[in-house]
Amino acid sequence: MRRKDLNVPALLLEAVVIILSIGYMIMQVVYGIYYRRGAGVIVMNCLVMLLLYAFFTLLSIYPERVNRIPLELCQGKIRKLTLWMIRVEKLIFSAGLVIPCVFDVLGKEIPTASSLILVAVMILVAAGFEWAIIKELRNHFNKQ
To answer: What would the pLDDT profile of 48-97 be if each residue is shown by its tens digit?
Structure first.
């Protein structure tokens, strides 16, 4: 994240996502050792988490690329909305990976619709933020 985009709520949210990511990787190792999974499976699961974290972090550095709008237009409220959308999506995705892992470590079966619920929540959050961004863009162009 760029220094100008950092504030206390953003840092707290980032800390929660980092804790979830580390917890996910620890649970992958515990699950792998307990159920005798291969090291390759554990490493691949941890790499997926790291790659997704890196992808969302890269998007938060360049938020103008999310909506493919010029840097001059991605300022003010539009930039803030885009950054919060990325942060919330990163949190939801990280929690969505951790929850099934917790169920696996506990040895319980997760409900079959849980992945569909996760996808629906991510789509709804993105749609809500995009709607607000589109409204801001319309207001910006109507003022000109």
So the answer is: 999 999 999 999 888 888 888 888 888 888 889 999 999 999 999 999 98
Question: Is residue 23 within 8 Å of residue 100, measured between CB atoms?
Answer: no
Residue (of 24, 42, 40, 17) closest to 32 by Cα position: 42
CA dist., res. 75 & res. 25, Å (int): 36
Which residues neighbour 105 within 8 Å (Cβ) at sequence distance 6 or greater?
Answer: 27, 30, 31, 34
- Is residue 59 a contact partner of residue 67, using CB atoms and an 8 Å limit? no
- Which pair of structure tokens corresponds to residue 57? 């972090």
DSSP state of 140: H
Query: Is residue 144 classed exposed, middle or buried when 0-12, 13-18 and 19+ CB atoms within 10 A define those classes?
Result: exposed
Cβ atoms 47, 55 nearer than 8 A:
no
DSSP 8-state code for residue 137: H
Prediction pTM value: 0.86
